[in-house]
């Protein structure tokens, strides 16, 4: 069984998309960056800290661990930040910060970095996904209307590529699922390392059986 240390509905949706069964566990951590911490180091640290926090909760409450557990449990966690001019943009704390973030992203390219971490017993593995996203020029009215939609407030950089925010995305070079919060190529690679099946593994097994 895998435990997803995340409250993000996007991460839950993406994990379902690749046919992985999971249970949600909480993992609240302090998400403040260190002074001078750069984006990739920050998201990697956050993803690992979330996985560790989930792991501790899981083991503090043995009752959470499924009684049908055949192998040792794994905890998956991720963290996404938008990077512009070397600054780390997380989730805006209010509408005015959301507006400032959106106007900062207008008419230029920024990076979206997501780290995914998987913890199993003494092992912790993590991967990074870096994407470049270019926004068209935004007017003040665009930003105001988008904020009114309610979409920006729980998203890094104050937008969602999978939602109305797609209207602003002129170009993406990288991983769509990574921008959305859980890079699926890297996630599947980690799951494979820990022998956790995905939807692809069950089809592979079917093919192997047919060949026998
Ligand atoms: C850039 C972008 C971010 N996001 C979301 C993904 C993440 O949920 C959020 C970044 O915040 P995170 O701090 O990475 O995650 P979270 O607090 O939402 O969830 P948890 O820590 O419990 O796993 O922004 C989108 O949904 N679409 C996008 O296009």
From TrEMBL:
Catalysed reaction, written as an equation: UTP + H2O = UMP + diphosphate + H(+); dTTP + H2O = dTMP + diphosphate + H(+)
EC number: 3.6.1.9
Pfam families reported for this sequence: Maf
Reported cofactor(s): a divalent metal cation
Active site: 79 (proton acceptor)
SUPFAM superfamilies: ITPase-like
Entry keywords, A to Z: Cytoplasm, Hydrolase, Nucleotide metabolism
Site feature location: Important for substrate specificity: 10, 80, 162
InterPro entries attached to this UniProt entry: ITPase-like_fam, Maf-like
Subcellular location: Cytoplasm
Main localization (coarse): cytoplasm
Class of enzymatic activity (EC top level): hydrolase
Entry's family note: Belongs to the Maf family. YhdE subfamily.
Function description: Nucleoside triphosphate pyrophosphatase that hydrolyzes dTTP and UTP. May have a dual role in cell division arrest and in preventing the incorporation of modified nucleotides into cellular nucleic acids.
HAMAP family linked to this entry: Maf
Protein name: dTTP/UTP pyrophosphatase
Provenance organism: Zooshikella harenae
